[in-house]
Amino acid sequence: MRFIVIINEKAGTSMTGSEAESADSLRAIFAAEGIDADVQIVPPADIEARLHDALAARPDAIAIGGGDGTVRSAAAALADTGVTLGVLPLGTLNHFAKDLGMPLDLKNAIGALARGEVRDVDVGDVNGQTFINNCSLGTYAEAVRHRDALRKKHGHGKWFAMFWASLKAFRRFRRMRLEIVTDSGEPRRVRTPLVVVANNRYSGRALGNSLRPSLDEGRLWIYTALVHRHLAALRMVWQSLVHSLDAADALGSEPATAATIASRAGPLSVAMDGEAIDLQSPLRFRIRPGALRVLVPRPGVSAA
Question: Which of 86, 145, 205, 262 could make an S-S bridge to 113, C-beta 3.0–4.6 Å?
Fold first, then answer.
């Protein structure tokens, strides 16, 4: 088998281990699994161009190493092309890799790709941009934007910066006035601090090993925080952490295959797979069923 492997050189702490110190060492791990791998460790700014070149070469698979933002770039490039994507979980949270059932240890993940099977999964789309996990509006997006500013200004670590950014966003507790229209219901106006549009249904605990029981149900899930005060918001967060997202009684949810979210306040700041961007209102969401071909572990290979 022939793989092209693109690694984000700014990937998280997994890249500091001895197994990933160079392209040669990664190439050797793939070779031990019977894969001829062209391994490229590249800066974030070059990833899209390298993906374009990799697609033109038509390998058996393109493996991407990095966090969810990096994987999102690869998914956007590979969706609807028929080229298979392999995910190496080298980020901080690795939500998509976990939901695919990938082992979190790098060597085990490479082995899982080598012996894996191909599966078609859904991706989400908002205003022409692809997302693999979710697109969030409101408090979380505000926290992500402030986190990035703190890291750029002070060089803080990601977790430390996110902690302080979340505190700031929570203290402000801004509520948005939005109109949400889905293909399965009547238009509704909401005033809320948080809306999350997810690629398939979320369940389990907010920081659990896997949040989505399926990635191929062909549906978006829209989650709206039905809280108006700090205490109620804290209770909702506590329920989602200790029990499950489904147990958070102040978190409304509804499925859809398409949805529009509009604000009269102009452009909306969103967090798409953990990265902050601005999008023009209205936001037009749709699900793209089975658009992405991925390698997943065969049954019996556990995430370690």
Answer: 86
| DSSP sequence for 141-187 | HHHHHHHHHHHHHH---HHHHHHHHHHHHHHH---EEEEEEETTS--
- Pairing verdict, β 283-296 and 258-262: antiparallel
Residues 11 and 110 in one domain: yes
- Tens of pLDDT, residue by residue, the chain (304 residues): 899 999 999 886 444 444 445 899 999 999 999 999 999 999 999 999 999 999 999 999 999 999 999 999 999 999 999 999 999 999 988 999 999 999 999 999 999 999 999 999 999 999 999 999 999 999 989 999 889 898 888 888 887 888 888 899 888 889 999 999 999 778 999 999 999 999 999 986 666 666 898 999 999 999 999 998 888 888 877 777 776 777 788 889 999 999 999 999 888 999 999 999 999 999 999 999 999 999 999 986 555 5
CATH number (domain holding residue 16): 3.40.50.10330
Q: Are strands 275-279 and 268-272 parallel, antiparallel or unpaired?
A: antiparallel
Question: Which residues are CB-neighbours of 32 under 8 A, at least 6 positions away?
Answer: none
Q: How many domains is the chain built from?
A: 2
Q: Whole-model pTM?
A: 0.90
In whole angstroms, what is the distance from residue 200 CA to residue 213 CA?
9
Integer angstrom CA distances of residue 214 from 31, 67, 82, 122, 296 = 32, 20, 21, 10, 13
DSSP secondary structure code for residue 273 in this structure: T
The domain containing residue 276 runs over which residues?
A: 130-289
CB 7 within 8 A of CB 66: yes
193 has which bridge partners? none
Half-sphere exposure of 193 (CA within 13 A, CB side): 23
